[in-house]
From TrEMBL:
Main location: membrane
This protein's GO CC annotations: membrane
Keyword terms: Membrane, Transmembrane, Transmembrane helix, Transport
One Pfam entry name: AA_permease_2
Name assigned to this protein: Cationic amino acid transporter C-terminal domain-containing protein
Organism: Manihot esculenta (Cassava)
Lineage: Eukaryota, Viridiplantae, Streptophyta, Embryophyta, Tracheophyta
Annotated InterPro entries: AA/rel_permease1, CAT_C
Length: 638
């Protein structure tokens, strides 16, 4: 394989655009340092990651979703719905765990997509995540003031300067508390990752203690009253299996938050060990708490009698424990504050990663030398979220948060398949190393083999009898060896082509199957045809990828020694199928709003990112030759 320069000269406008969309960057390694910028502080260990993960996952949703989903979908089987949602989230968690340990740099799904898929997809993922975390943080912040008002006597009881105010001329409701809290959290995040994590740890501990209170006190009441909620004529599955599964689809979003852990990968002391452990413990802890709370609350009152707005405190009030409302509301406030920190923490790191790659202005990539935090990106994130939280009612935009999450989860699963079957076989180098690359290239023939490697390697690492054997059989053995090596190369190229196209067909099949199963307005023949074709492609992809050997390069790709995703290709394919189904079910209105944001992102990339990318003039070389080029460049500099 030759040395390829990613120059767009002579390929035309459209050719250059296409090549820019598919160019991929290198996994950060000992050779690849962040040039011109300070590194983030490596301060985090497993306990810190668990705090970040639980704090980002357990928001106030659990204090509300318990009532809403139980009344409308799951009934007494709410705990089973949480279990299914947790298992579905675990599929994505497994994929995140492998990629986070192999590619431990800031950027999360954006970073993985850039390495495995290409710059175009990575840009859209990063752009969608910016929207997700901004709207998510704003929505969480606006949810805090109604809960705080409870301690002042009820709704609209906050002091005048903190209370929500309606502006008639603009027909908006401003929320001073939301913006103030966003600024407080932003300032805390600017102090340092370790300091902000300690504060988040305290807030998360209070939240978990409140949930444990609900479980313990609720269990006492349940045994005392005989668990009346489970003695209903409708049985355990009041809405059937379909209702239980519909509840799982809603609860899925209450089980995610581990992506915040992945965004801090660059700040973890031992990412190969700590990131998978942090993700795993987070998901297991959150799902266990969710299920226990569900079992207890649904056993105290019939599901149809639950208050959809304040289900947990209302249940305790019905049993005469009115004072529990103060404890439960305190937990809700702590949960919202912790979730706010979890929403504002990842976005500056994604902006920083995109700016490091040249897709955004370098302003966002600056890291403060004292706090070792991307302060400028953090301030920009805080100002944007605070402005949105102050002026806008983001409830109708909440669905847009899910788009970024599900797109990221889907691309991470696809990245795992690419990493296992067709990992990048070329590495980008800056054009400043062109002379070094040319000098190394002279040592290789057209097949990418070192002209002198036969002699040098044999002399250095074999016995003295081998040169005589080569001398005696040179006329016969050398052509045979070359022919065998050519056959191996051709076989490997065919394997990569088959695997690559199969992954593409599998993703297409997942889309066709889920779209046809969801859109009931399609004509029956069209719908059944799409289901058949999609199912056949999905099954074909699963069978072929199971039979095709995985690439040997996967063992050395990125940072080895970390977590390995099990059950490949079944697990990533199932993950793609679930996330695609949830994406399609978000509704046309949500997709219309997201499409506007993504279209803006396309223009930003076309006008700035594509022409300022750090890979604009990159020279791509085979992975097998990368170390020699690194050594040669170091020797020249020395």
């Amino acid at each position: 394989m030759g040395f390829i320069a990613d120059s767009q000269k002579g390929v035309g406008l459209w050719g250059g655009c296409v090549r820019s969309l598919v160019r991929r960057k290198q996994v950060d390694s000992a050779h690849v340092k962040v040039k011109g910028h300070h590194q983030l502080a490596k301060e985090l260990s497993v306990p810190h990651l668990i705090v970040i993960g639980i704090g980002s996952t357990i928001g106030a949703g659990v204090y509300i979703l318990v009532g809403t989903v139980a009344r409308e979908h799951s009934g007494p089987a709410l705990a089973i719905s949480f279990l299914i949602a947790g298992v579905a989230a675990a599929l994505s968690a497994f994929c995140y765990a492998e990629l986070a340990s192999r590619c431990p740099s800031a950027g999360s799904a954006y970073h993985y997509s850039y390495i495995c898929i290409g710059e175009g997809v990575a840009w859209l993922i990063g752009w969608a995540l910016v929207l997700e975390y901004t709207i998510g943080g704003s929505a969480v912040a606006r949810g805090i003031s109604p809960n705080l008002a409870f301690f002042f006597g009820g709704p609209n009881s906050l002091p005048g300067f903190l209370a929500r105010q309606h502006i008639p001329g603009l027909d908006i409701v401003v929320d001073p508390v939301a913006s103030i809290l966003v600024f407080i959290v932003t300032g805390l995040l600017c102090v340092g990752i370790k300091e902000s994590t300690l504060v988040q740890g305290f807030v998360t501990t209070v939240n978990v203690c409140v949930l444990l209170f609900v479980i313990i006190a609720g269990s006492y009441l349940g045994f005392k009253t005989g668990w009346a909620g489970y003695g209903l004529p409708s049985g355990y599955f009041a809405f059937g299996v379909d209702g239980m599964l519909a509840g799982s689809a809603t609860l899925f979003f209450a089980c995610i938050g581990f992506d915040s852990i992945a965004s801090t990968a660059e700040e973890v002391k031992n990412p190969q060990r700590d990131l998978p452990l942090g993700i795993g413990f987070t998901l297991a802890t959150c799902c266990t708490l969710y299920m226990l709370v569900s079992v207890v609350i649904l056993g105290l009152v019939p599901y149809y009698a639950m208050n959809p707005d304040t289900p947990i405190s209302s249940v305790f009030a019905e049993h005469g424990v009115h004072w529990a409302a103060y404890i439960i509301t305190s937990g809700a406030v702590m949960a919202l504050c912790s979730a706010l920190m979890g929403s504002l923490l990842p976005q500056p790191r994604i902006l920083m990663a995109m700016a490091r790659d040249g897709l955004l202005p370098s302003f966002f990539s600056d890291v403060n030398k004292n706090t070792q935090v991307p302060v400028k990106s953090t301030l920009a994130t805080g100002i944007g979220a605070a402005t949105l939280a102050f002026f806008m009612d983001v409830d109708q935009l909440a669905g847009m948060v899910s788009v970024g999450t599900l797109l990221a989860f889907t691309m991470v699963a696809i990245s795992v398949l690419i990493l296992r079957y067709v990992p990048p076989d070329e590495v980008p180098f800056p054009s400043s190393l062109q002379d070094t690359i040319d000098s190394v290239a002279l040592q290789y023939d057209l097949n990418g083999q070192d002209i002198n490697c036969e002699t040098s390697e044999i002399d250095a690492g074999t016995s003295s009898t081998l040169p005589m054997l080569h001398k005696n059989n040179a006329a016969v053995d050398y052509p045979e060896i070359v022919q065998q090596e050519a056959q191996v190369v051709l076989k490997e190229e065919n394997r990569r082509k088959i695997a690559g196209w199969t992954i593409a067909f599998t993703c297409t099949g997942a889309f066709l199957l889920t779209y046809a199963a969801t859109d009931l307005n399609l004509p029956r023949p069209v719908r059944f045809t799409m289901c058949g074709v999609g199912g056949a492609l999905l099954l074909f992809g699963l069978i072929v990828l199971t039979l095709v050997e995985q690439d040997d390069a996967r063992h050395s790709f990125g940072h080895s020694g970390g977590f390995i995703c099990p059950f490949v290709p079944l697990l990533p394919i199932f993950c793609i199928l679930i996330n695609t189904y949830l994406l399609i079910n978000l509704g046309a209105a949500t997709w219309a709003r997201v499409s506007v944001w993504l279209l803006i992102g396309v223009f930003v990339y076309a006008l700035y990112g594509r022409t300022h990318s750090s890979l604009l003039d990159a020279v791509y070389v085979p992975v097998a030759h990368a170390d020699r080029i690194h050594r040669s460049s170091v020797d020249i500099l020395a």
